[in-house]
Recover the amino acids of this structure.
């Protein structure tokens, strides 16, 4: 999910959500902050903050967000507006508003709070946020979502302010108790200290007194030069549990009396279930029942093996419908024909027609990018227990409120009767922004009397994913006598994810996500026209795939910039430098990466070096890739990159995210492709949906550029910037310009 969605999705109405939750919010309002303080059961201080409008209790003067500041605690925890809790023992609990799926937010967000709260990071206890958009909405996304590389951008000020407000109250409580000026006290390591009298007191002893104080307004935040935690290389807080196996992912869920479901979905997009002969399946030991729903059939067993064997024994007939005739040729032909239409204008500067008329040279190209599956390490799974009066759901999801709403839609139960237990996610990449697996599991669960875990096999996962759309780009440039662009025209054709995911964001035929990067280039282009034509691939479901708009656009733009450099007979790095004069941060990362990679030095025969530059997710990124090409096989020898993501919370996280994103991007560029024949996905497992192996992974050198700018996102830039640098390197090695991904299939036929 990318910045185009972030801007467009604000205020988008979600199923069952309150339309007023984000209505009328400006960027200034997004940054406003409030605190609700009260005594927790048993004595404690609880501070909650959120980003919706703030009111003030006229009697107490306390700020109130989405609820009464004096609301009685429930089970020792203030709900629904509690993010930080400090109990009488001094224990600090943080309800993390984002979901941990390997990106490190369960470390970085606590670092922000611990920094201002003045507590050791290893004393903070973490918990998942429940579904509650009034409390946990990310205003950058317009909902309670984890995606778009927004977590730190969203949390940077509010989380720090929450910690600072709590610290200020605790210091005030201690000063009041000691009858000294609060300015003479300071907080450190979970204590308030009065140096002049050599007195100290732990937070736990102060929470009851602090809870009675009015919340201060506009508490100053630390100067970054005084940071002790933020900016340091902190070890991941979630690593120990992942190493010793106690971490709970959705796949790990075990509840009493649970049974297991193995499922077969209709192999043809848009098809439905016709009939099932379960005679043989029911004879298999451990098989309990066979459940039929609209487009799938599931076998319920005492364990996975029984359910799987029972599924194999079924005789299934499908109503394949018109989708059974769908082929890749039809899909691509439809896109090509759609590219002849004028699209919704995303950007128009100057006079493109006149620019082409004045150009000395014209360059035209068509780029294509295939459907892609997510193939997350943790296969799709969802455990449900549907009762007459309630429904519980266990899984790892990026969208807990949409999960709740999906369960409501199937069961007809109200929101307070749906309980969502969110867990760690073993890979999201946008797949778990969807809730189709929840809808299916609840439909099955309605027919099963006990809790049931629905688990998709890897084959079901790959063949029934929601795919990154197939994109078809027509791009042209007119070059002047100096080789620089005088005219730039770019038409993007493909499915609109936003039209389905957030309909209000799709306005006047324009999908802001599909055109991101393409419509806001860092380069100086005097005359440009960028437009978008929506063309849906029949019944094939499409969804976000790690970077989405920036990923697809950067491949096209940075490959084409390389084509222009070759046409102008100018070094690719120099060509970019000459166009980046108005974007100094982009120029800086390019220069940093080029120097680190020793750009311009000789490479061995059969090898090539390529470059790409990107500005997306609030970050600037440059990447240089060295490859070797031998008989159509590409080996990535080295990757060097520079990233300016503004102020860095945890450099370890930045480096890990960049490395992981690059590996993900290499896999996608070299191998990944979903193809359709007779309405069916032809790939079914890692045998034919290939992954990069560990011994094929190159050294990845990450250079973090020091910056005082506000934080940008880092989860997706590495993936988004990789592909063009790789294909540009292949061009340098072979002279073959690859405009159609994946690389492997194109080199074999080039």
């Amino acid at each position: 999910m990318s910045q185009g969605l972030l801007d467009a999705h604000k205020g988008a109405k979600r199923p069952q959500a309150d339309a007023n939750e984000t209505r009328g919010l400006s960027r200034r309002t997004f940054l406003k902050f409030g605190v609700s303080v009260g005594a927790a059961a048993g004595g404690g201080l609880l501070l909650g903050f959120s980003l919706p409008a703030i009111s003030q209790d006229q009697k107490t003067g306390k700020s109130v967000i989405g609820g009464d500041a004096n609301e009685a605690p429930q089970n020792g925890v203030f709900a629904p507006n509690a993010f930080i809790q400090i109990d009488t023992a001094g224990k600090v609990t943080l309800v993390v508003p984002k979901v941990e799926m390997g990106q490190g937010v369960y470390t970085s967000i606590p670092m922000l709070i611990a920094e201002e709260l003045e507590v050791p990071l290893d004393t903070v206890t973490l918990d998942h946020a429940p579904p509650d958009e009034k409390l946990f909405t990310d205003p950058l996304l317009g909902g309670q979502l984890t995606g778009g590389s927004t977590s730190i951008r969203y949390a940077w000020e509010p989380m720090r302010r929450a910690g600072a407000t709590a610290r200020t109250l605790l210091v005030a409580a201690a000063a009041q108790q000691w009858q000294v000026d609060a300015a003479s006290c300071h907080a450190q390591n979970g204590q308030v200290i009065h140096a002049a009298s050599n007195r100290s007191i732990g937070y736990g002893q102060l929470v009851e007194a602090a809870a009675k104080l009015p919340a201060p307004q506009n508490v100053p935040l630390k100067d970054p030069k005084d940071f002790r935690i933020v900016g340091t290389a902190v070890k991941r807080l979630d690593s120990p549990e992942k190493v010793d196996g106690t971490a709970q992912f959705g796949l790990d869920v075990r509840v009493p009396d649970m049974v297991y479901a193995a499922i077969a979905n209709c192999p043809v997009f848009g098809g439905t279930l016709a009939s099932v002969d379960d005679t043989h399946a029911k004879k298999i030991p451990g098989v309990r029942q066979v459940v039929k729903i609209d487009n799938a059939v599931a076998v319920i067993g005492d364990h996975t093996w029984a359910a799987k064997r029972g599924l194999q024994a079924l005789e299934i007939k499908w109503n394949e419908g018109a989708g059974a005739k769908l082929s890749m040729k039809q899909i691509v032909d439809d896109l090509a024909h759609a590219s002849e239409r004028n699209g919704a204008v995303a950007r128009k500067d100057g006079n493109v027609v006149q620019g082409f008329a004045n150009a000395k040279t014209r360059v035209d190209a068509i780029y294509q990018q295939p459907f892609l599956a997510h193939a997350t390490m943790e296969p799709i799974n969802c455990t449900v227990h549907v009762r007459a009066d309630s429904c519980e759901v266990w899984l790892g999801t990026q969208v807990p409120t949409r999960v709740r709403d999906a369960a409501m839609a199937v069961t007809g139960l109200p929101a307070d009767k749906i309980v969502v237990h969110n867990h760690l996610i073993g890979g999201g990449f946008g797949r778990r922004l969807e809730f189709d697996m929840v809808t299916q599991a609840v439909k099955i669960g309605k027919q099963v009397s006990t809790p049931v875990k629905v688990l998709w096999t890897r084959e079901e996962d790959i063949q029934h994913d929601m795919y990154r759309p197939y994109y078809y780009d027509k791009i042209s440039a007119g070059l002047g006598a100096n080789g620089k662009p005088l005219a730039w025209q770019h038409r993007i054709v493909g499915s609109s994810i936003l039209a389905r995911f957030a309909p209000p964001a799709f306005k006047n035929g324009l999908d802001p996500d599909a055109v991101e990067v393409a419509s806001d280039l860092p380069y100086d282009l005097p005359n440009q026209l960028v437009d978008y034509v929506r063309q849906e691939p029949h019944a094939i479901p499409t969804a976000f795939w790690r970077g989405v708009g920036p990923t697809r656009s950067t491949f096209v733009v940075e490959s084409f910039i390389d084509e222009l450099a070759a046409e102008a007979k100018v070094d690719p790095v120099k060509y970019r430098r000459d166009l980046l004069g108005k974007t100094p941060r982009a120029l800086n990362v390019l220069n940093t990466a080029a120097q680190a990679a020793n750009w311009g030095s000789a490479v061995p025969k059969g090898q090539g070096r390529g470059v790409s530059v990107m500005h997306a997710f609030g970050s600037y990124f440059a990447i240089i890739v060295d490859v070797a090409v031998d008989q159509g096989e590409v080996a990535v020898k080295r990757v060097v990159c520079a990233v300016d993501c503004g102020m860095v919370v945890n450099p370890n996280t930045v480096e890990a995210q960049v490395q992981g994103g690059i590996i993900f991007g290499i896999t996608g560029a070299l191998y990944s492709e979903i193809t359709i024949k007779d309405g069916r996905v032809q790939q079914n497992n890692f045998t034919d949906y290939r992954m990069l192996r560990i011994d094929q992974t190159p050294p990845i050198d990450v250079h973090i550029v020091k910056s005082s700018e506000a934080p940008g996102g880092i989860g997706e830039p590495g993936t988004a910037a990789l592909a063009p640098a790789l294909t540009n390197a292949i061009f340098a090695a072979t002279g073959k310009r690859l405009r159609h991904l994946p690389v492997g299939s194109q080199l074999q036929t080039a």
Observations:
- Confidence is low (pLDDT under 50) at residues 4-81.
- The longest strand covers residues 619-630.
- DSSP finds 20 helices and 30 strands in the chain.
